[in-house]
Specification:
It is a single chain. The chain has helices spanning 3-14, 26-44, 47-56, 64-83, 87-109. By secondary structure, it is mainly alpha-helical. The protein has a single domain, classed as Up-down Bundle (Monooxygenase). Helix 2 packs parallel to helix 5 (87-109) and helix 3 packs parallel to helix 5. The model has no long low-confidence stretch (mean pLDDT 85).
């Protein structure tokens, strides 16, 4: 087997089972594009918690341990997205980690 064919065969083995993006089927394609919106809205969902902590200057009832764990888990998802070169997964989780850390800092301050 020549080197050129070996490279093509290795690439075929590595990509086996992966679907194109966006997907060919209409349902999967819809889901692919929907996840862009989820990636933007998920971090925004944390804004009310951030506003409550910083405007009231109180973190009463907000668990520090919970938010630290959530930040760690989201950081791992961001790392996973970076390692697998999945930009959507990386950026969505990186922004969530940023907002999680803003909440953690607010809890520590108040």
């Amino acid at each position: 087997m020549s080197i050129g064919f070996h490279h093509m065969r290795a690439r075929a083995r590595l990509t086996k089972g992966l679907e194109p993006f966006p997907a060919i089927g209409s349902w999967k394609r819809f889901l692919d594009y929907l996840m862009y919106g989820v990636g933007i809205i998920a971090p925004i969902a944390l804004v009310p918690q951030i506003l409550q902590i910083y405007t009231t200057r109180s973190a009463a009832g907000v668990s520090l341990l919970t938010w630290i764990l959530i930040a760690i888990f989201n950081a791992l998802w961001a790392l996973y997205g970076a390692v697998h070169k999945d930009r959507q997964l990386f950026f969505a989780n990186a922004f969530v980690v940023l907002f999680d850390l803003i909440i953690v800092v607010g809890i520590l301050m108040y």
